[in-house]
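#random but structural
TW: two for the price of one
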Amino acid sequence: MGSLLSRLGLECGGKAVKEEERHLRANDRELNLSYKYSDNAIKTSKYNIFTFLPLNLFEQFQRLANAYFLFLLCLQSIPEVSSLPWYTTVVPLVLVLSMTMAKDGSDDMNRHRCDKQVNNRQVEVLVEGELQSEKWMDVQVGDIVKLENNQFVTADLLLLSSSEPLNLVYIETAELDGETNLKVKQALTVTGKLEDSVEKLANFNGEVHCEPPNNRLDKFTGTLTLKGETYSLDNERILLRGCTLRNTQWCFGLVVFGGPDTKLMQNCGRTTFKRTSIDRLMNVLVLSIFGFLMIMCLFLAIGNGIWEYQEGSKFAAFLPKGVNAPFSAFLTFWSYVIILNTVVPISLYVSVEIIRLGNSFYINWDRKMYYPKNDTPAEARTTTLNEELGQIKYIFSDKTGTLTQNVMTFNKCSINGKAYGELLDFSGQRVEINEKTEKVDFSWNNLADPKFCFHDNSLVEVVRDGNPEVQAFFRLLALCHTVMPEEKKEGELYYQAQSPDEGALVTAARNFGFVFRSRTPESITVVEMGELVTYELLAVLDFNNVRKRMSVIVRSPEGKLTLYCKGADTIIFERLNPSCSNLTEVTTLHLNEFAGEGLRTLALAYKDIDPEYMEDWKLRHHVANTAMDEREEKLDALYEEIEKGLLLLGSTAVEDKLQDGVPQTIEQLSKADIKIWVLTGDKQETAENIGYSCNMLREEMNEVFIVSANTAEEVRKELQTARRKMTPDGTEEPTVKKSRSGLFCLQKTETVADEPVNGEYAMVINGHSLAFALEKDMEIELLRTACMCQTVICCRVTPLQKAQVVELVKKYKQAVTLAIGDGANDVSMIKAAHIGVGISGQEGMQAVLSSDYSFAQFRYLQRLLLVHGRWSYLRMCKFLRYFFYKNFTFTFVHFWYGFFCGFSAQTVFDEWFITLFNLVYTALPVLSLSLFDQDVNDWWSFQYPQLYTPGQLNQYFSKRAFVYTVLHSGYSSLVLFFIPWAAMYDTVRDDGKEIVDYQSFALLAQTCLLIAVSIQLGLDTHYWTAMNQFFLWGSLSVYFAVIFTMYSNGMFLTLTSSFPFIGTARNSLNQPNVWLTMLLTTVLCVLPVVAYRFLRILLWPTINDKVRYKVRQDKVLPATPRRVQARRTSTRRSGYAFSHAQGYGDLVTSGKFLRRTPKSRPALFSQTDSPLAQTQPQFYRTISEREEPPLSP
């Protein structure tokens, strides 16, 4: 089954009155119906058989272009105004409306089909003491339903009981969040006693008070009142609609939310579409074109009034009602609005969508962005942003899982002030560890993981000797976590870890003799040096992004109460007992050494707890845990209270290796003048070290600024000092340019100008300093300093801060931004940026589901931007320039003709030519240009990343380029009108008969126009394909076939009024002077363009011109030189970020065991990854550029 979210469509119902709190009682339909809660029926369709036509037309005519052409059609129905037949507007309008209507109708039929299928599913419902099969649509809030294995969850249910031990159920949430691993939910013990007894369930009358309907999939707050007792309800007790029951024979649930109130349906609200800068520019240009159209019509109307006043009296005898010059001018104004409407062609919008769709398919079909290891192709999840991929100026990237593999290995540790993991020779010098280095023998441990690799035997010796501190260290790693064990065979343990960090640490404890074996909601069983020990689990103090730590409180078999805590070193050190000061200093030195090697570090601590204090704390914990208001804040305060006075045990260090090709990709993007900012939760030293590994930070940089102050004033001072070092002669006040943009210039914008910098700089800022820097009075200072740097690394940042940094750059730089990440903590950043890219990695699918584009490896980003993005931008700009050129040229010929027809609004072309010009004669050639053209191929795009920079500067299409296009059209229209007019003036045929008539002139003018714009298209085409040739020559052939057909005797006799040009084609096109006129007009139209382009390439060549010249010189691609990547030696520090997610503490206390279903999927392609997408270094040659002239045809 496909994604249920997508099948349910985009629109969801809602109630007019906002619900503050939900109250319901089990098995009491009368009470629950009195609250008028929504039933379980869903309706995602927009239309029915009666409303489809009027409602769809109403929606389509809300678009400005469609409404404009409807207005023209109304004008054409007025005989005094219309000088064109109705079909010139009706045919294109009906075609566009019909295409959109067919698409909307097809989509809505699918929604109807899906609604019907879902609403008519059957489920067993407890009604009047009996289980009855009911349709989903008939289920009500407060009903008790029975689900069986592999069934979809009917509604949002409170789990009551299940067939599994401890009342567990296993659900698959792939339809909600894209994750295929099974989640575990557990019923309350008090409701679990109901089991599957229909009698007990029928007598169950518990009352639920909970939050109103909302779209938070990861949160639920409520209470269950039963027999005077109140029990806390959270997300771990709720089964959400859209999930599937797995590996569970049966379960019973109480309906809490139904139909449109379910969290699934609350999440399928209207999607906010991102718009490209070209879209916004087009809106402004179209509005300007409307104004320009009105000015032309007004000018021609005034000309008509003057002409009628001066010359019209001579023709008054032939008119039935005489001449009224002002009224004639008024009618002429609207007549010209109809005639000149082609300046805003309706086919423009349809063509743009086709081009975007085609370029999206190119991304989906690109084998060089396919990752065979995971069978993951690239995916364009939106079709509206392709050309913006060619204009990216800032990239905001996560680190873990995006730049790195997010596959952790336990490398080193520090225990009680001694470091383990290094190998020393007899002289005390470090020995480099490689694949040939001897590994530690764990054969003494029958439960050891055979894949685990460690090299320092001294750590094994102290563990086996019974060192209490070392054993306490590994005991903490075996107890303080949220890992779920799975033992398929005796002794074969498999760990399901929520984060790779936890899996690596628990596996390390396992190999060193402290094997996490099993768990229940109340206990954890560990094999300690061969002895089975069961600890009573009293509480889990869960991790979140604010706490950055997690703790467990356990009771040993001897009755000793202990709190074990692990987390970020800065957080743990703040909560240590003062007696640990000396150990803290030594451990800090070890942390710095580990971090300097790019390892992710974690501090471990513990404390013994007094039993009496624990009893009091548990009572207060229960009160906070059942609170309906501010539950999380109250729990955090209790956690903060008990996590004090800790005793330090040591620290761990795990390695997270870089993904393949990351340094080369970042190097390529930097050469394309794209600035890369890394926003990570890692420790400052870790982020800095990874920056060097990725080539973002380089030893040859002038300076790397570190901003790590603890007060707002110190942060401001450090930012100002860095800025003054980069620009000693710069101004203290920023240059802020205020302007207006958008339709009618209603949107105010402020742009902080870029400041010149001599040299290369980088900045590293931590989350504490960033919080001050993002305040309103300091954000400009942060932006100025950061934007002067080639690389910016923000460490220890929260998900909210990631989004704030992106919004800051968007607000003041007016540049196109891209955010890339792989985890749930990157979603806010991905949504905030102009373009969001998700990497399908180790942290689930949340980032992918929120993104605009997705793929499996960071290295594919260079192909997405430097190839697909650049080509899409180039094609769209060429399309728009050419489209406006041909339509303005077409329209201006009508304008000039007005001076020769008494401003009477007579058309210069045949009416059928006007109808078919944009729909048939020029549609396919320009589409082929926009889908297939490329200035250079992908190989050369990689070799010269500077080809990307024109897109960042909007050089290919802007307001200036539009003005030049209009001027070019004006010149071409003058040639296309006056050369045929002069050639036909007083001209006779070979037989002495006159050829000077309106119809012959119209045929000559329209033929010259079509040939000229076709040749212009050929000049704009850089990459000729068979499709380009076929569409271009085919369109010209169709034109001549159509005119000979429509101007024939047969068509005239069939519909005389519609085909008046009888015999014009055969009478005109057999004259040599007609063909010579076509040749002359074509040469005069093309000659200035060719001359200008020749001089521009000769005198002011652009980067594209130079590379294309190089391509012509190098017919055979040169072999890529091999370069050995020099190893960087640096003593810079590095550190750790706790890769974890909130909510898994509650999961383990409720006994939820993660299970992963086997996944088998055939490979999409047999071909392996391409060399370009692999880690081979790519080089470019520096090409100097002189100042370029303004863009012109």
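TW: number two ↓
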Amino acid sequence: MAEKAAAPPPSKPLTTQEWETLIEDFQNGVHHKWNSLDPLFDLLLSSLLRKDFPLFLKLQLLVFLDEFSLSFFTSHHHLLRLVDALKAVVHAPLDVVASTYKDQFMVSASSILICASEKKVIDPQTENNLVELLLTVINRPNFGSDRHTRGVACECLRELERWKPGLLSDVVGHLWSLCQNERTHASQCYLLLFTSVIHNIIVRKLSVSILNTSVPMVPFNAPNCVMDSGSGSGSDLNVKELRRALAFLLEWPQLMTPCGMMEFVYMIIPVAMALELQPSMLKVQLFGMIHSFDPVLCHVVLVMYLRFLEAFDGQEGQVSRRLLLISRESHNYLVFRLLAIHWLLGFNELIFEKTKPTIELCSAFYPALFDPLALKALKLDLLAFSSVCAHVLRLKSGSDELIDPVKLFENGLVCVSSFKWLPPMCTETAVAFRTFHKFLIGSSSHSDNDPSTTRNLLDSAIFRTLQDLLVNMMLESRRLVPVVVAFVDRLLSCQKHSWLGECLLQKFDAHLLPKVKMDYNLVYCFPIFDRIAENQTIPPRGLLELLTNFMIFLVEKHGPDTGMKSWSQGSRALGICRTMLMHHHSSRLFLRLSRLLSFTCLYFPDLEIRDNSRIYLRMLVCIPGKKLRDILSLGNMILGISPSSHSTSFFSVQSPRPSKNFKSFKNLSSCIHLERLGPLLVKQFWSLSLSNLVVSNTKPAYLESIRDLKATVEEKDFSDSSNTEIIPGRINQPQEPLRVMDSKVAEILNTLRKYFSCIPDFRYMPGLKVRISCSLRFESNTFNRMLGLDKTVTSLEEIDALPAIYATVLKFSSSAPYGSIPSYCIPFLLGEPYNKDPASQNVSLSIVPVGVGNDSREEEKYRAAVVIDLEPREPTPGIVDVHIETNAVNGQIIQGQLQGVTVGIEDMFLKAIVPSDISEDETPRYNFDLFNTLWEACGSSSSTGRETFQLKGGKGIAAISGTQSVKLLDVPATSLIQATERHLARFVVGVSGEPLIDAVWQGGIIQNIILEDASPVATSVTNHDTGPLRLTYNDEECENGAISNSRKRNLGCFLVLIFLPPRFHLLFQMEVGDVSTLVRIRTDHWPSLAYIDDYLEALYLS
């Protein structure tokens, strides 16, 4: 009870905003929130009858009721209440209720009644009440104030009459009287209502008197024929009265609008035919509308013409001239002009047997120069139809007095002749070739019962004219060749007219090939050559001779300025040869094609073309024709080359496409291995990168290895008011404060300038390369299992059954600063023998004879050498990622990621660059002096200052910012010398100390260096410090001055000079002792010191 009391009262009226929200929710399907309004229909009716309710919302509610009528009108009571509400609104005065609201209420009520009858049976009383109310409204003829409302009521009654034919048959006499009395513009509505009632009386054959008005109009009762739902009384029609009514209706067409006239004629024509009225009566009254400028009225006349053909006999020419005149009058709308051409086409098909008067007007069918393109296209269709009509009439009459179809065709194309110089894909070109197709196959339909024969079309003048036109078109404008190919493809793809396309190709072979000009533009004709090569009915002789002459032309014209023309055009010529091999018997091609291929593989300038022609020649000579065609077809499927099918595109050239037989494997690195030939001493799993740590725009010197040469003056050295004079000869050099230098410093700077001028600037020219040698191999068993080929073979069949990969491409990338890494190609690689797999390598170790060293050479057969070329921008370790793309034996394309290749710091070690003017004998001394110079420049007390050195190319400069470090190695001298000879021999530039010189001399590995004993010169090279390096282990030893000499005896010193690309250096001065060695390190790239400790320990201590 509490819940009931809390519910909102059902009769509470809604506000304007609430009604708008309700309508929107219903339209969106969200009406559950309004279920509490009970009942909603009562609120709707009460709102419609409220005087203070806005008019615009009332109109919305009426439309809303009409839209959701099936939801609201669930009983007869609802419809009856709606009609009562309508009656209250209609009888209200105009100052209270607007006429617009009355009109909409009548329309909505009629619509709701008709729609509700589809779901439930309507109470006859409700229906009678609505009709009676509408009859009451219209029963006020010539009343001016409500003429529009009366017209709307007439339309509502007409809809109800259409809903139930014969509903107003008993009051038809009253309706006739109202039509006679009405003189306002609403008379059209009265006439259409009366006409619809007459039409239904005749259709249902109701025996009623239209002159009898004894039955009152109000109150209205539905006639028995409607209540019984019968087809009629079965009696004869009152023809006399009906003819009289029809004569009355035919006197009022001039009062109707074009749309009203259309409805009137559609109802009058069945009435006239049922009453056997003379068509001349309709012709006299209605035929004059053909001269109007309204397309609806013209359409009415054509509809009447279609029903009464005999009545308009002899007036075909008049109708055709009028329709043609409409299409030629430029002041008419384009839609009307296009519609007139459509009517004319349909009209000519309708009177096909009487087209002679129309054909005589063909000279007026030609499109005008400034007609829109759509109108030109339809007029050309009309000319093509006229040509067909003339051809048919000529066959029937046997006379040639009619129009010439060739003249019609040529004169019609004048309006679109610009397609010859416009782009091939323009709309005018499409219209022109559409016209070609219409004229060519116009007299031959796609029906199997078509009497036209092949010989008739081939012998027609249109076919001969068209083939000559197409040949001349391709000779004069080769850009149109793809359009001609598309035109031929359209014929070839049609089952009915494919022979027309073949005949055109035969004519092209006979007339086009001998006339083409031999130049580089001949390639534009290759699409049509492809179609000729595919057609088996055309002998290949002419095309082969043309291709041979073209190959000779390419060979003769080849030169340094030819570029890729020879390769591209030679490839396409070989593609046509391939097409002929696939579609012709080898016996037809052998002689001339073998000559063409032989000449190509001997004299053609491009290697790839020569190889391909040699392959085709061997296939032509050695493989039978059927098997050869199968192989070439299989090659298309494997390589992903689309066959030259007859597509509708202008260009249908064979082009590579992604193969469908394509797989990407994630575990490809488990069977395919790319390994370094020489293992790294240090497997560096990290690298030091400081470039991301720099926030400021100005990079430090150690990060900006090479800078552009600029004339900069620092503001701190020169004030704005200074009058410093800049020497013109040094305008391109960096300006710096004047400093005094001695001869030694000047000699150091001259040596460094000469040396740095030989280092290439990688920004403007190829930089120094670092080459990493690797080998590629793959395991046969794992590879087969991955591809799903689990083969088990015997030892005798092992070699023949080994898998192989073809056309392998290795692509490299790295996050380290190594520049662009070129890919590497391997043509062929055989898999390792099955007994080489890791699963079979777990055999017992046994003594192997000395002569079994040939196994290493056997293994090389199953490995491919790979070289990775790096161009470092910074000497740092890293990892090179490897991506492989290869082809299996079955044509399957395989791709995936392999294990990355590690790059160590020792890979960056290169020998210093020697200027070209230094002879080979002077090289050791130069390297020795260069070491001393760089050692001095990289020192902490360097006298080079901020000197910059210009690099090779003259655009970049570099500065030396050195740093130093030391490393103590607890390794015997013998082990250190052997390790140095094995890994650093090519970088040693000098050896000092007699014991060390003797040891190096006995080894014989380190050569072409400077050997110096302990002399003043040598001591100057090492250091000015006296005595060995003193290492203090704690503060007490340092305070007490204790010295620990761990080297026992100094044997000598190694001087090592290493170049780090792109322009850095690493210098070792190794003071060798009996049981330990002290390595002094200097470099102009301090981040590399992070890797040197690990490298020296791996080199000497492992």
